[in-house]
Amino acid sequence: MGLLCKLQALLDRTRAVDFLAPLALRLYLFPIFWIAGTTKLADFSNTVAWFGNPEWGLGMPLPGLMATLAVGSELLGSVMLLFGIGVRWVSIPLMITMLVAAFSVHWQHGWQTIADPKFCLFNCGDAVDAVNRLAKAKEILQEYGNYDWLTGQGNFVVLNNGIEMAVTYFIMLLALFFIGGGKYVSVDYWLRRKFGPCIEKA
Fold it and tell me: What is the pTM of this model?
């Protein structure tokens, strides 16, 4: 028991730097949402069209409003995550954005980002079909292209575009919703120290 207690005490000492976990989550998520928001904003008319079109888009009502809310959440949210301002509050619209993306855009493609029928959770038929198409594409490239050069920076894959990444980001945001922006390197922490418990807990 003495050794176990010492090991536990040693483990507990790492809590002195527990702010590193929420900081890492925030710094990881910042460029993801910033790039997503700026990409939508750069071609906003097509973004609105994609939100509203029921045939090749999302078929959402009020597409202009929905696109504006999505872009605003991603751009403002990414900056708030970066600086640790209102982290728990801004996690909410960003989680909603991820749920909308998962169920309206990615759900039909199954779980995986990269198609692999050996590890698929649902919609496995699509993954099998993707692998068959990939094999055919490699066969064509090996016969008619410089395959060694083409694969010099990595292997070809089929982007399955499933819910995997949207769910991953949702879980990261969920963690931030409960733990906040962390100590020392978030604005929330310093605001709370200055103004007291009515300010969001960092």
Answer: 0.87
